[in-house]
Specification:
- By secondary structure, the protein is mainly alpha-helical.
- It has one domain.
- The radius of gyration is 19 Å and the shape is globular.
């Protein structure tokens, strides 16, 4: 029983890492209607910014806050200068642009900070406490609680605030939103800025668990996209639950399913994803798209 609880707790901790990036992807999609594949690269850049500020002697929490502000400005600037030229056009072109942006940011990080493994200090203490025979670290619990808090905040933003409703209106139908007097261009910038700011938090949290390298989020981005598809693009709550489920399932399968082991556990979430999508193409918590003809 203790082993099972330990695997679940560790899975929730790793799933929170996937959820952090997944929430940023959902945020930019709910704000602009796009899937931003560069989100991982922007989060890595923010993590390096935190690393540089800590190197200058700033406290970690101050460095993270400054990185969040800088990421918001960078996200808004990228939308205004680059992404806006492709919004409303062919979605495939926009996807290629974000993939190219991911490659560019990764290369810039490698050129400035090299490709060596760097280490970011932990925000939470290293101590653990015992619960039903399992050792639960404050680091995993802290990451879990931070992601849960952001999930609630994003849900409240899009469901209960004028800004969130305006962002959703712009993402659903920019032309109608503009005719209603909503400043579409300004809100698109805000949406990208908010997603980049959340990505900065995700990058800082993930860099503490993994070694800080330009490509540290390559695999995490794949898991995050799986969580987004599984949970539903329209549901921040669904994305977080799906990410936690992915983290727990791969841990349990690696130990309790003999032919899977640690080598094949990466395939477990995607088998689960395929099964779910056969039954619910919109994801576990997503909404069906209804088109009037």
């Amino acid at each position: 029983m203790g082993t099972f609880i330990q695997l679940v707790v560790d899975g929730l901790g790793m799933g929170s890492v996937y959820a952090a990036l997944g929430l940023a992807i959902v945020l930019v999609n709910q704000s602009t209607g796009m899937i931003n594949f560069a989100q991982g690269g922007m989060a890595v850049l923010a993590a390096y910014f935190v690393f540089a500020l800590v190197g200058f002697g700033l406290p970690l929490i101050v460095a993270i806050l400054l990185a969040v502000v800088a990421s918001f400005l960078l996200g808004a600037l990228l939308e205004r200068v680059l992404i806006r030229r492709f919004e409303g056009g062919d979605p495939d072109t926009a996807i290629v642009v974000t993939v190219g942006l991911l490659t560019l940011i990764t290369g810039i990080c490698g050129a400035i900070w090299s490709y060596n493994n760097l280490h970011l200090p932990w925000l939470f203490p290293a101590e653990s406490f015992s619960f039903l025979g399992a050792a639960i670290s404050w680091r995993s619990l802290g990451t879990f609680l931070v992601i849960f808090a952001f999930m609630v905040l994003i849900q409240v933003l899009f469901r209960g605030t004028k800004l969130g409703l305006a962002l959703r209106a712009v993402a659903d139908n920019p032309s109608s939103a503009a005719l209603s007097g909503i400043p579409v261009g300004r809100l698109l910038m805000v949406g990208w800025g908010l997603a980049a700011a959340l990505g900065a938090v995700a990058g800082a949290l993930i860099a503490q668990r993994l070694s800080l390298t330009p490509g540290m989020l390559d695999t995490v981005l794949v898991y995050a996209l799986a969580a987004v598809i599984l949970g539903g693009l329209s549901s921040p709550f669904g994305v977080v639950v799906a990410a936690w489920a992915i983290g727990v399932l791969e841990n349990l399968a690696a130990v309790y399913v003999p032919f899977v082991g640690h080598d094949l556990k990466i395939a477990v979430p995607f088998v689960f994803l395929f099964i779910v999508l056969l039954v619910r193409p919109q994801g576990l918590f997503g909404r069906k798209t209804v088109v009037r003809v």
